Amino acid sequence: MHCLHCYRYDVTAWTEERPIPRDVLLRQIKGKNALFCMLTDKIDKEVLDTAGKDLRVIATMSVGYDHIDVKETKSRGIRIGFTPEVLTDAVAELTIGLILATARRMFEAHDQIVEGKWSAWAPTWMCGVELKRSTVGIVGFGRIGQAVAQRLQGFGVERILYTSRSEKREAKGLGATLSSLENLVEVSDFIIVTCALMPETTGLFSDALFDKMKPTAIFINTSRGAVVDQLALQRALEKGKILAAGIDVMTPEPIPPTHPLLKLKNCGKYILLYIYIYILYTHHGHITCIGSLDISGLTRLSLFVAVSLPHIGSATTWARSQMSVMTARNIIAALDSQVMPAEVM
């Protein structure tokens, strides 16, 4: 906002640490030449009609712009700015952190201390999964997907697969191989979602895709919540179709603290048995019993809880400050009829 004040614009600002209420936005937008918005602000026909003919630019402090009715906005000759690149490193780092927190059960282990359940070291207690020797699938291989692949280089993963409309020239240097989505979800130990939210990716991860995953797969989403059918993810975890999930985005946001996805618990006394069963299953094929014990149902139990974060992928001081500056510069450039730093075309 300081950039805008320096250019002697008359700025009306919402200064509270919460999304601007809809009625306040509609009241304040009237007669404005520019709108500095967040991804929590739904910019639709009603907002545009209320703003009137003076509105020339909408700049969102986000890399995603699915909250803006782009077609309607463009039809009125209003330019749209967004903030790519400046948040790439922050989101990629958070993605790696979420992978490790989920695979190594960090949140769960912390809860064990807080709840007084840490009694002593034990061979199988809090055992998780390593990235080393794994197959990692990245769904969406744009800037963030590539930055995640770059950071995986030091973990000794066996191979990296990615999905894209076409082969990416950067992939070779990252040791990544183009794959179909179906093959990727079938063979990957870690499935990382970094794709953009578009009509073709909305609800992409459904029961059908979760059914194709390994029972030991770990699912990570740092893209947008609507890319995943959340009930399908919940069912996959409850039925043991996948091992664990780490999500930084969900639907709705904020998600209610009573949501079932946040309440998933691991299998308690069945954990060691599950590990033993999976070792046998991996080396000897399908097994339905150990001695006289029927274990056919236990192989479908989920081992870990779902790890959830409140959409903090870009939440570093540097990234957020650069996002705000780029948003302001987008507005200034548009009002001066200049090339914007990042314009939705």
Automatic annotation (TrEMBL):
Domain (D-isomer specific 2-hydroxyacid dehydrogenase NAD-binding) ranges: 96-267
D-isomer specific 2-hydroxyacid dehydrogenase catalytic domain boundaries: 10-344
Stretch forming the signal peptide: none
Keywords: Oxidoreductase
Pfam families named among the record's database cross-references: 2-Hacid_dh, 2-Hacid_dh_C
Superkingdom per UniProt: Eukaryota
CDD domains in UniProt: GDH
Keyword field contains Lipoprotein: no
Similarity comment: Belongs to the D-isomer specific 2-hydroxyacid dehydrogenase family.
Name listed for the protein in its UniProt record: Glyoxylate reductase/hydroxypyruvate reductase
